[in-house]
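FAQ

Q: What does a record look like?
A: Structure on top, sequence underneath. For example:
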């Protein structure tokens, strides 16, 4: 079966910009979408928000909004990005995404919700109580989600990140986001999404036009 592999990080602004493309791909009949979180801000790469960081990311965020149409909320721009006590850590939201997938098959829904929580609502998506609340918004039981989160935390999340990075290196990806199409034969092709940002219907049409019972190829 044809599979679109999506390599991302929940704290990657361009991945947030690509979120409508992910949703468009999910709606293509006969195409499986597999997600791979790369852990951009984990371990020693975690980053505390500073005025310098705010100054660095805002021009990029404006560019992402311009190209993708994805909104960046005031609670993020003038709230979270001014909170120098906040830590940006990809690992907790990745664990939450894995937990949501294992519990309810809602990993991609959780990704979309944590992205919106960060970039629109200005929430601290590295905090477990925030992640539990988001899971509950998606219809999951809070206690069951916390149990799944505990199971996926630590070594399981690290294995997932390592496998994601290995796939990114295998296909020669240039970072996050990277979309890789497996046509069903095991052949992997990287899709340049630059021409699709802000045009999810265009990507959906292209994927839908090449995906059928025999497989697909771009």
């Amino acid at each position: 079966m044809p599979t679109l592999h999506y390599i991302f990080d929940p704290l990657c602004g361009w991945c947030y910009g690509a979120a409508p493309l992910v949703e468009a791909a999910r709606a293509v009949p006969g195409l499986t979408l597999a997600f791979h979180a790369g852990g951009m801000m984990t371990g020693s790469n975690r980053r505390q928000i500073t005025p310098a960081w705010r100054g660095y990311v805002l021009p990029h965020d404006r560019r992402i909004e311009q190209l993708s149409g994805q909104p960046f909320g005031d609670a993020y721009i003038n709230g979270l990005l001014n909170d120098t006590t906040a830590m940006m850590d990809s690992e907790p939201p990745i664990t939450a995404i894995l937990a949501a997938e294992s519990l309810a098959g809602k990993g991609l829904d959780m990704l979309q919700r944590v992205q919106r929580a960060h970039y629109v609502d200005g929430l601290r998506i590295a905090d477990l109580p925030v992640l539990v609340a988001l899971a509950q918004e998606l219809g999951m039981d809070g206690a069951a989600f916390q149990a799944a989160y505990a199971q996926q935390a630590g070594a399981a999340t690290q294995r997932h990140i390592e496998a994601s990075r290995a796939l990114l290196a295998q296909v020669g990806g240039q970072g996050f986001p990277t979309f890789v199409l497996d046509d069903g034969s095991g052949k992997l092709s990287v899709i340049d999404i630059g021409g699709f940002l802000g045009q999810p219907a265009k990507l959906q049409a292209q994927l839908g036009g090449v995906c059928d019972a025999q497989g697909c190829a771009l």
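Q: Is there anything notable about this one?
A: The mean pLDDT is 94.
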